[in-house]
Amino acid sequence: MAYKSLTERVPRTLICRLEEDKMARKELNHKVSFFSKAIATLLTFQVFAPAAGCPPKENIFPQCTCTTGIVISCNIKTVEDIPVWAFRGYSISRLELTMSQTANKFTFGRYFFMGLTIKFIELKSFSLATLDLMKDFEGLEKSLTGLSVITSSIDNVTSTELQQLNKEFSLFLTLTMEGSMCLLNDDINYIGIPNIKTFTCTGNSGIKKADKAPNYMLSDLSKLEKVDLGGVGFTGIERNVFPSDASKLKIINLRDNQLTKLEVHLFERMPALREVYLQGNKLTTIEKNIFQPVWNQLTHLYVNCNSVVCNCDVAWILYNPKKPANFIPPTCQGSSSTASVSKKFIGLILTDIELEDLCPTWIHFV
């Protein structure tokens, strides 16, 4: 007796059901696969997305405290006291690290901040063997907006040669170094962080040679808006220190240095410049041709606390009717050769006729 084929022995309705079940299982497997991937994605997001709020107090106390806005302040004795592991998974607005005692000099190293999300870092009273911008802050390329180093001892500040790494810090806009070694090393010509808007280098701590500001130090920073080089001890500064394209530069602060004169081209090609601070230097004269490119656009000009000889050479600024809205004049100082002229200037408000009589070469500054 010949055997019948499977399709002949099994009712057709059952075969249809089997085929339908096969298709259903296939569709079910597809749905399960889809939802499995979706759940995995959500779990991944939950794990790696920055958490809201502060890290648990028990994880950061007693070295650190956390306040509203996720501002974490840590008072530490050594770098090992920083509970970096507890910061992972949190979006930190500001991390303030203060060294409470003199410690052996150390270096952060390339991977110290890896895996963290921090917008702003402040280092205070640190003792660093070297600070490498931006290599020491690898891992913060997508979050770091600024760095402040205050009253810290730094043997050497360098700028990484990894240009691609520098460019990845696209949000990094503010670099402040107060009372700390600034980027004034002879072997550094520029900072190399293209988007910086505010650069502050103040104080004389750790600076071994400051005859003049290093040439081309800020020349590539075309987005720079504010420069503060107060109290560093410069005896001179040239135009090439500032961005070659200074179309956005608004504020230059050179207060409390050792400047005896200004370079003739110092303020050229600065169409946005509004504020200039020169108080506390050693200027003996203020030449009008230096300020002529920006005079009509300045809103702030401070030249007080300079022992300027108030003679006909500075009459243009003392008696100019078109002064900046916020203007503090130089401190007049006489000299043996110009004593008679200086005495007439000091404490007097002269008319144009009197001024022309005193200074035959006087002309209005236009």
Automatic annotation (TrEMBL):
Transmembrane segments: none annotated. SUPFAM superfamilies: L domain-like (SSF52058). Pfam families: LRR_8. Keywords: Leucine-rich repeat, Repeat, Signal. The keyword Repeat applies. The keyword Repeat applies. InterPro entries: Leu-rich_rpt, Leu-rich_rpt_typical-subtyp, LRR_dom_sf, LRR_TM_domain-containing. This is Leucine-rich repeat transmembrane neuronal protein 3-like isoform X1.
